[in-house]
Amino acid sequence: MATAQQFCTFFIEKQFFAVPVQQVQEVIKFQEMTRVPLVPPVIRGLINLRGQIVVAFDLRKRLGYPEPPEGQKPMNVVVRADGETVSFLVDEIGDVIEVGEDCAEQPPETLSAEMRQLVQGVYKLKDQLLLVLDSERTVGGTDRTGK
Amino acid sequence: MDDLTREFLLESYENLDRLDQEFVKLETDPGNLELLKSIFRTIHTIKGTCGFLGFAKLETLAHAGENLLSLLRDGQLSLNSEITTALLAMVDAVRSMLTSIDNTGNEGERDDQQLIETLTRLLKPPQEPKEESATETTKGEEPAPAVPPEASIGEILIKRGAAKVIDVYDAVQQQAEGDPRRVGEILVQQGAVKPQELVEALNLQQQARAASNTSDSTIRVEVSQLDRLMNRVGELVLLRNQILQFTNASEDSGLLATSQRLNLLTTELQEGVMKTRMQPIGNVWSKFPRTVRDVAVSCGKKVRIEMEGKETELDKTIIEAIKDPLTHIVRNSVDHGIEAPQQRLAVGKPVEGTLRLRAYHEGGQVNIEISDDGAGLDLDKIKRKALEKGLISSDQASRMSEREAANLIFLPGLSTAEKVTNVSGRGVGMDVVRTNIDKIGGSVDVQTKLARGTTVRMKIPLTLAIIPALLVTNRGDRYAIPQISLLELVRLEGEDAQKRLESVQGAPVYRLRGRLLPLVYLDRELRPEAAGESGKSSVVNIVVLQADDRQFGLVVDEITDTEEIVVKPLGKQLKGIRSFAGSTIMGDGRVALILDVLGLAQSANVVGGNHERAVAEKELGAVASNGEKQTMLLFQCGSEGRMAMDLSLVARLEEFKSESIEKAGEQMVVQYRGEIMPLIRISEALHLPEQERTGDRTGKTQVVVFSEDGRSVGLVVDRIVDIVEETVIRQRPSKREGLFGSAVIQQKVTDLLDVHSLIRGAIPDFFESELIGRER
Predict the structure, then answer these.
(1) Do the domains spanning B467-623 and B629-775 agree at the CATH topology level?
(2) Which pTM was predicted?
(3) Strand partners, B474
(4) CB of B571 within 8 Å of any CB in chain A?
């Protein structure tokens, strides 16, 4: 195998996503959040991570998926992006997997424009496709619209 | 670098900072022996230590300076500006060598030969020192003063009368010229001093040095160490809050007592750690006399610097943060604010300009004012410039108040300096000042009067880390409001809740003790989409806040509690929202947002918005002649006389025994502080209906002491009622001598006493005699 990379995977609306494992600080279960007014809906709130306050991003909203079914509590993938620690809210956590660079592919043209901006690469796994997110871009672009 | 060198550097930096200040002071007061001695000691210490550490260049230079200083101190030379300049240059050279040692470990490639020569040349006194008189004065002194720990052997010998000044001078001179022997050796070998005397003097020197070491009771600590400690304490405070919340629900008295103890200890620990980080603002200011001198000299001006409140303490991080902005403002004031001497003369000002620094605590904040008596800001020019640069629109410019125009100088890209000097006008401008002050949660404001001067006023929080806050809720979400901005809380219930809220052209207001308080609804600010909804609730909670110099009421759903909170910065994604200042973790572990009072006020247009201010002022103008709050002393005179006078006119309130009141001629007097003070019974002076005199019953007479120019007069009243702070609106002018009129204070009609006219009426020559006294 050529160079391989490790990814921390998760699911949103049954779709398989991942971020590079070295960007991930930890994965934690649902946390109570404090709403933040005056920000775009992508920012769901603030959580207390053992004394550190981090912003939680709703990846469903960010990627253009509909609201989750009633009662479903999102999990937190805590990521270091753009010099800050933030949390990505996802439906379900997957495994940490190792994928060879040889199965990487450019994002297909058919992806929505929004999604194409955030997806850094597509990996063809045996039974499904893995979309790798660019954390910096996922976090970015909200501070301006936050006004 | 070894510890010893590091310590030497730290100590020397501190000493040099003090030197700058002392030299400048010395220039205005050349005869000050104490100052000279202190300067000499500092240089001597530096010289001694660097000799020890093997910094030869530094030692030679310091030595040259020391020689010159010792002559100055002994009165054999008198200070002139040439000497001051040379000595200051020496200080600078020493400083740059120290920096070099700090960075590279050696003294660097400096060549200070010329400076050393200058220093040595200046050593030659204009005339030869009069040897006789010199020894005379040292001998004729009162019992020989204790030997200071840093006294040189030569000094001790001269003091003890064992050596002549000229011999010591020669020996020191020889040493400076490269003689490797010690001063004592030279003296003994030249037969100027008996060996016995030298041994005694050396013993004395040693004793003195040993004694000085015992007073070493301070240690140096790295700031980062304190920062870490502070962070831990911050976490502890949070934990304490959580524990308190758990235990408050518990019934176990043992647990409750323990948690109370924990509570107390945490608070003490927190205060203790904060204290270790506090530094007097004088530490920063101490550099300014030198700065001012240098800038003033370079632009040919004369500027005197005055300082008040040097001892005001601030957190170390804040001191660091305001250092540059302050320096910038000071330089700016000297360079642009204060006019050139001939210009000052032309407008009848003293040639010497004054720069005043003032610091004081107020409401948990530190206020710092930098004022100059210069030309003031040309507001029209500033507006023009801002227009040119497209920073404001012409419409804005025409509507702008003076204060707003003055504050334009804080906009980036606006420099009104006609020419770029090496001091200012180089682009690092007032906008950087504002940014830096904003960063630490402070505010800065400028006030100016053409031809009278400019004052820059900063409000700085004492500390950044842990602040007391008021907790409020809006739609179930908690928010913290820093108590620094909190003035008072108002709760309206039942009918009041709807009736007392009024509106001026659609802007909601509340009448707070006769003053219109603009209201801001937190909910509408946080959820602009809900602006239309009118929440009719039976209870209205108003948090009265101070933002800048404006007050406004923030309407919230509920006011819950006060708590010490640890301020945590907001993530990058939330920085742009000006309504929030930060976030914190509450006792239950959840996050709460900290409201930025100024930001809220700005986004609600309470501050800086012309509209509401204009409306509010118009409305106020209709009811009030002067909207300013006054502090009034309320008292009772006669049977119905309820009166008030401005508290600023009151020197003291005194109570005299009735029998101590005497008569001098027709005048009632009392002996007061070694003087005879005339008394005026207000009810008599105003011919008020008499009441049974309380003085007759209680044996005590209440007197309000009024003082002017060292003369006092006592106003006899029947009873002191209260001291109130209110907006006093004079409603009915008075026909009666001695009264201004009447006003409603505390919902009762109250006469306003005209103290001056009352005194003039009773003692016609009170003010005149003082006038004569002044002319004499």
Answers:
(1) yes
(2) 0.49
(3) B477
(4) yes
